[in-house]
Amino acid sequence: MFFFDFNIIYLLFITFLFNMLILGIDTSCDETAAAVLKNNIVISNVIYSQVKYHSEFGGVVPSIAKLQHEKNIDKIINLALKRAKISFKDLDAIAVTIGPGLAISLEVGIRKAKELSSLYSLPIIPINHMEGHLYSGFLQPKTTSINKIFDIPKNFPVLGILLSGGHSEFILVEHLFVYKKLGETLDDACGECFDKCARMLNLGYPGGKVLSKLADISRKDLNIQVTNIDGNLYVRELNYKWMLPVPMAKTKDYNLSFSGLKTAFSSLLKAIGNIDKNSIGKLCAFVEYAILYQVIIKLTNILLDYKDYFEEIWLGGGVIANNQLNKMIRNVIKQDYNNISIIKPYKKIFTGDNAAMIALVGYLKYCKYKKNAFTANLDAIDRLPTLDISTNYFKKFL
Ligand code: KG4
Ligand code: ZN
Fold this sequence. Notes:
- This protein has 398 residues and is of the alpha/beta class.
- The protein folds into two domains: 183 residues, ATPase, nucleotide binding domain (Nucleotidyltransferase, domain 5, 2-Layer Sandwich); 187 residues, Nucleotidyltransferase, domain 5, CATH 3.30.420.40.
- The protein is 40% helix and 20% strand.
- A five-stranded mixed beta sheet has the order 3-2-1-4-5, with helices on both faces. A five-stranded mixed beta sheet has the order 8-7-6-12-13, covered by helices on one side. A three-stranded antiparallel beta sheet has the order 9-10-11.
- The termini are far apart.
- It binds 5'-O-[(R)-(carboxyoxy)(hydroxy)phosphoryl]adenosine and zinc ion.
- 5'-O-[(R)-(carboxyoxy)(hydroxy)phosphoryl]adenosine (KG4) binds next to helix 6 and helix 7.
């Protein structure tokens, strides 16, 4: 006898109603990125890194970034569509980063989104790049089954930790898209500190990833201790008698600061003088520990002050790829907070800048605001280079 399975019918119904193909575009810094998502599932993801054009300058040169974005954006978008095996006509919307980032870089992506919107009558969803990092843990691989499609964030309040080359922030996510910044760096970002220390060791630019790889293979040789001297916290290596400060360790706020640590590392290197090949890895592991220890202290303070408040911590940004950081966070959670789950990107590629996370936030905005999430008024969309995550930028589009 034939009978209906109502669960399957319901699933088919909502799938039919909500399935969306979104093109994400991100040109906020020095990566030209495009991706196609079916809801929160990554169908294709293309990232073109311009790093080779910037490395000789030791940082991103805005004018070069803009030129490279302009040169590559069509190719990258077309490749994303080709890999997704779709054409522009199949898309439901475009999600594009409007800030924060380099003004003249952001403009390239926004202009392209507007051009495609006019050509193919596609609505645009303007996105905050840091929101992309924040929700990047909810991206799902292509192999995900259809009933996982509605796996959207629910367990609020959540603690978001965003550590990238331009930002270092602790975010209280009260509800979907409602944020309060608990703390942030007062000077350099965490990834920037990694890059500057890597540069002092001649590891190239951006050297954060190289530094952390060398640290991974040399950590076991170190004898690190954290010491309190005259009310200030220091990280010490007992065999080599190296010492670095842990700035902000004693302040009651949840802010971070990395510039003093960077200067202290430079002084330490000068004091050591000739650094043999063997010591480079050990210095990487040592400075990495000092950088990350500060993050862990502030995380511990937040968890103590907000006791039993969070069930989830969301991690996002390039530095989240760091193995030692993940280990240190896991240790804090395991010891005292094993009710807290960690949500982070399913692949390391999504910790850094990418357009899949931008399309994902576009999809989540659609889930929350339905058709209102789409901006028909293209003139209202403009770059916001200093856009802050706690600013409700989206209300002007609703
Ligand atoms: O999120 P992201 O790709 O770009 C920004 O929005 O800034 O982050 C890039 C930053 C760079 O500073 C890079 O050196 C750092 O993330 N990074 C790392 C690691 N991988 C990337 N820092 C430490 N350890 C890593 N494994
Ligand atoms: Zn980023």
